Amino acid sequence: MIGLMMMKNKSLEIEKYLDYLFPDPKCELNYTNDYELLIAIVLSAQTTDKRVNSVTSVLFDKYPSLEALSKASLADLETILRPLGSFRKKALYVHNIANILHGEYNDTVPHDRDKLENLPGVGRKTVNVFFGEYLGKPAIAVDTHVNRVTKRLGIAKEKDNVLQVEEKLKKCFPKDSWAKIHLQLVLFGRYHCKAKNPNCKECQIINLCKEKKKNL
Ligand code: SF4
Asked: pTM for the complete prediction?
């Protein structure tokens, strides 16, 4: 009971600070529709949103529909996606996703988790980002930033896998805040609580952090 109360107080303090830092958090991937967002999220694995935005502006300009994208040659997709890591694999994902959405879903993106997770390169994290960002559904995606920050703040244990981290975050924060908390944790990890040299001196939740000594 006391443990639960302490966790509740901790999550309230974290949410208050994140609301102060990022009162209106926004996804930093550029997109104009659902399939562009889905593809941008797939491309964002192991790279920065900035780099993804620089290639998707070329990609979606040259191939402005799912049909056009499905007809693109793999070689050209690889050329466009080359600035990203794993560009061959990512080109294949884009090619196959466009083919499936065009051929099987009539140029629409299904809003069903199982159908989405069956698409090439789309996993639970991708669907969670898509649900939270595009559909406004309650979801918390655990990427590298969310994983790191959650563990530093002692919400999850070091040995927890991403699914366990997601479950612990969901227990900590109210359901209607999940999508917002996800974005705020990403931004906090990206700009403040960075993997190397986090800005601990300025951090106002340092009292909750397990790693403060190490990082100071
Ligand atoms: Fe991150 Fe440092 Fe704040 Fe801990 S004290 S949460 S490591 S920024």
From this structure: 0.92
